[in-house]
Write a structure and sequence with these properties.
Blueprint (H helix, E strand, L loop, with lengths): L1 H18 L7 H48 L26 H20 L3 H10 L7 E24 L3 E27 L2 E19 L8 E11 L3 E9 L7 E9 L11 E6 L5 E6 L10 E12 L2 E12 L2 E3 L12 E4 L3 E11 L4 E12 L3 E3 L6 E2 L5 E13 L5 E9 L7 E10 L1
Helix pairs in contact: 2-3
Length: 441
């Protein structure tokens, strides 16, 4: 019995061994090779996917930049239609198919980055606005013609006497009024030497008319006298350079440094003969007026300034500050009396200016800017021979102005700029109106 059980157990064991799969010594190495091939293929696939996503992003960014440039040159808004999807390369699934969910997310991020890049690029209208308050460096050559009109009206009441019984004024009351109208044509050329440097030349031509009114002299408040003088000619020519210090980033503004030199090419106000006028039968109204109006300040001047611009969607904020130094100059005659000649030196007071404003782009063609500017000038000084400098009383000034500007792109190369300035202090013009037409090559 025990022998039978032993034979049966051996038969069962033999059957089980025959039914089991035969193991080969080469099975383990072959499985390792397959796994290595799979890992290599997966790595290549991931590399191709990443390269494909990068190429799609670059193609879309280039396409959007080309569209923005074409729209800017055409002077109209860039199209907002979606771009067509690019065909997928051989062996890869097309974007948007069910097998490329990872590619869809990468491609969507690439499109968003391209859209953001295009939005950060300044529009044509913003560049036109910046050209008036700041500087742009992507234009090779710009020729600008401008025409400006300014109105100045200043009244002064002069009392020469005393107050009796705290209520009655005894003496002379004189009224002085000066009204000036100025028309200025300016030709400007701006040349881009490099992406960081531009050179500018400004040549103005002025036509001025000033009316002088005086009344009340000699005890007669009803007696009035008025005289007009004119003057025209080329003004003071200036040459300037703009250098970009820093490009705009998320934490700092676009910063430009400006150097300028102004030459005394206009008619200087020193040494112009004045004529003495008498009006009325009483011969009491006597006052002097210049025979002709000057067209320049007569001195060499140097200017250094800094301007900054920061984009704050949907607007840009700009500011500037600067210093103007006047160099002393000697003249053969600084006297207003036509019968005498008095040589001497003139030194204008140095000036400081600053301003700030904001600009909005309505669309690709039109922008609006609002700004405030102020200029503080110290007193002028005169010197005859080796004598000490003498300050000219009343020659200091504070000219504050509020400015409103509108730019409109007429074509791909031409822009119309309108500027309105309103004087906020007695030393500033009552108002000024300027039209500019820059032509860009």
């Amino acid at each position: 019995m025990n022998t039978h059980k032993t034979l049966l157990a051996g038969a069962v064991a033999t059957a089980l061994l025959i039914g089991m799969p035969k193991a080969s010594a080469q099975d383990a190495p072959v499985g390792a090779k397959d796994q290595q091939q799979i890992n290599a293929l997966v790595e290549q696939l991931q590399t191709l996917k990443s390269s494909y996503a990068q190429e799609v992003r670059r193609l879309r960014e280039l396409d959007m930049q080309v569209q923005a440039l074409q729209a800017r040159l055409a002077g109209k808004a860039a199209p907002n239609t979606a771009l067509p999807a690019l065909p997928a390369p051989n062996g890869a699934a097309a974007p948007g198919s069910g097998n490329t969910s990872g590619n869809e997310a990468t491609q969507a991020g690439s499109i968003a980055d391209a859209e953001k890049s295009r939005e950060q690029a300044p529009t044509r209208s913003m560049q036109d606005a910046l050209l008036q308050e700041h500087a742009v460096f992507d234009r090779k050559l710009t020729l600008e013609n401008s025409l400006s009109y300014s109105r100045y009206d200043r009244k002064q009441l002069t009392l020469n006497g005393f107050l009796a019984l705290d209520a009655i004024f005894l003496g002379n009351i004189a009224i002085e009024n000066v009204k000036s109208d100025s028309l200025t044509y300016n030709f400007a050329a701006r040349y881009g030497v490099s992406p960081r440097l531009t050179l500018n030349l400004d040549v103005p031509y002025l036509a001025r008319q000033t009316a002088y009114l005086k009344g009340g002299a000699g005890g007669s408040a009803a007696a009035l006298a008025e005289e007009q003088t004119r003057g025209n000619g080329i003004g003071d020519v200036s040459l300037s350079a703009n250098y970009k210090l820093f490009a705009e980033t998320s934490s700092r503004p676009d910063t430009v440094l400006t150097f300028a030199v102004t030459a005394p090419t206009g008619r200087a106000p020193y040494g112009i003969d004045w004529k003495v006028l008498e009006r009325g039968d009483d011969k009491f109204i006597r006052f002097a007026v210049p025979q002709k109006q000057p067209t320049g300040n007569g001195l060499w001047q140097g200017n250094i300034g800094v301007s900054a611009v920061k984009t704050m969607d949907p607007a840009i904020v700009f500011a500037n500050i600067g210093y103007i130094h006047s160099f002393p100059r000697r003249f053969g005659d600084i006297d207003t009396d036509p019968q005498t000649r008095t040589p001497g030196e003139v030194k204008l007071g140095n000036s400081y200016y600053f301003g700030a404003g904001v600009a909005f782009a309505f669309n690709e063609r039109t922008s609006l800017s609002l700004s405030f500017s102020d200029r503080l000038s110290a007193k002028a000084s005169l010197r005859n021979g080796k004598l000490p400098w003498a300050k000219v009383i009343g020659s200091d000034a504070n000219a504050g102005t509020f400015n409103l500007g509108v730019t409109y792109a007429l074509s791909a190369h031409t822009t119309l700029v309108t500027l309105l300035g309103v004087g906020l202090s007695p030393d500033a013009p009552d108002y000024s109106l300027t039209f500019k037409v820059p032509y860009m090559f």
